[in-house]
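lol so apparently i was supposed to do this last week
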Amino acid sequence: MSELSDLYQEVILDHNKNPRNFRDIADADKTADGKNPLCGDALRVYVSLENDKVKDVAFKGSGCAISKASASMMTQVIKGKSKQEIEVLFDEFHKMVTGELDIESDENNLGKLKIFAGVLEFPARVKCASLSWHTLHAALNDEQEISTE
Amino acid sequence: MKAVKEMSSFDVEKIRKDFPVLSQTVNGKPLRYLDNAASSQVPNLVIERGAEYLKKEHSNVHRGVHYLSQKATTEYEAAREKVRKFINAKEAKECIFVRGCTEGVNLVANAYGRKFINEGDEIILSQMEHHSNIVPWQMIAEERGAKIRVIPMNEAGELIIDEYENMLNERTKMVAVAHISNSLGTINPLKSMIETAHKFGVPVCVDGAQAVPHIRVDVQDLDADFYVFSGHKMFAPTGSGVCYGKREWLEKMDSYQGGGSMIYTVTFEKTTYAPIPEKFEAGTPAIAPSIGLGAAIDYLNSIDLDAAFAHEHELLEYATEKLSKIEGVKLIGTAKEKASVISFTLENVHPHDIGTILDQEGIAIRAGHHCAQPVMQFYDVPATARASLAFYNTKEDVDVLCDSIQKVIDVFA
Ligand SMILES: Cc1ncc(COP(=O)(O)O)c(C=O)c1O
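anyway here it is w/ pyridoxal-5'-phosphate bound
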């Protein structure tokens, strides 16, 4: 069961129970809806920008522990970052959960997001971890909706 | 229930040996296969029959004078006769081979719909239908300018029959309803529902995907006009299925797919069609899977099926009782008449997380909307976890399931 505890680490369980920035932003500059039709996960990401940097970010919706924790930690990490910095993280996160980036040996900026490397062992859950990131990416690129299927 | 006595005469360990898949380990644990509503496992008899066909009998059907083609044709038609007998159709020709339940519903919706459904007409579905018994009807309703009406259900997941009876009128052209719900396990009171529809001269198309592997089905006794099901949920390979239709309807309907086999004569000016069932079997059919379906029926006939179903029902009651005692578990679908399916949610834990953790224990369940989103909307849940039984499951499977659900609760405590 060691892999299982890799997936459901304390930090992830905590973010699932008490998701950070779990609210809406009434006058958000960008929003997008992300859906995973297979499991019914659905979330909305809100972003406020200032000088091309994320001033505030929040999310709402329903999903499994992995998707909720991932969204929660994402909002913490990207606050204050520029679009460009976020693109780099999005790319690295995506590569980490699909196995293209080795968090031990490849240089990266993922920091505490490395905790999601555990989903690699659970192919059915990769989309749960990446849903919020795809949704954020869509919001920043002015797409209203994405679906991970 | 009477099941208790029969149960003792049913040797589940012996039956399990017929299903090679079941003896493996998954994630280091013995496999507990509880996803039978999605797809059931295949017994040796079916596996060997498939291999024999491919080794010795494979050819195209209905088209050759040579030995193999005739052999394949004979075996394919023999499978049709097995189906007839199994569901007690009047004639084998009323049993059309399709690739699965979905294709069967599409066949009926298109072929019946284009002929008999017109602007302003109504099609009655139920709240608990699988998407494959909703979407084809929506498509034909849109094409023909017809309206969909939905039989509501109560909190237990039982159809509200009074409302159904009030819904029927002279505009009603079809009632399409599941025999057993795949997301709730409810067994619908089909026989009386069909009787009521017939009083209005309305035919009924039954989605029997979840019924055929779990209860005895007699299409003549039900007086069903159409009855469709998949092979892969009844111990046969994927790609097999049956669309039963009463001859009188099938003959009035036009083909819905064109191609080889379904014709009588073809000129560029006009084509005349073959009689049933070929009229609805355009192109080379799924020969090997259909013969496999025939073998699955042979298998079911070779065991004490009533005892097997009684064993399964006892397991359902055992599991229902045991699960409902776990704090935080909420059963979704508590109809009085139920079969094989236990849908549930766990407080503060998403079904997907339940599914992943159970998988680590070797338990296969389904987590999701079960292709029945209107059911999820009714209960206002995004998804459920679903354990679904077959007669080869054991009390131990249920015990391990319950223990593991406790582990899930502990992880998320
Ligand atoms: C009640 C019901 N109807 C229809 C279907 C569709 O069957 P298939 O996907 O084999 O065509 C299923 C299975 O998924 C089902 O459970």
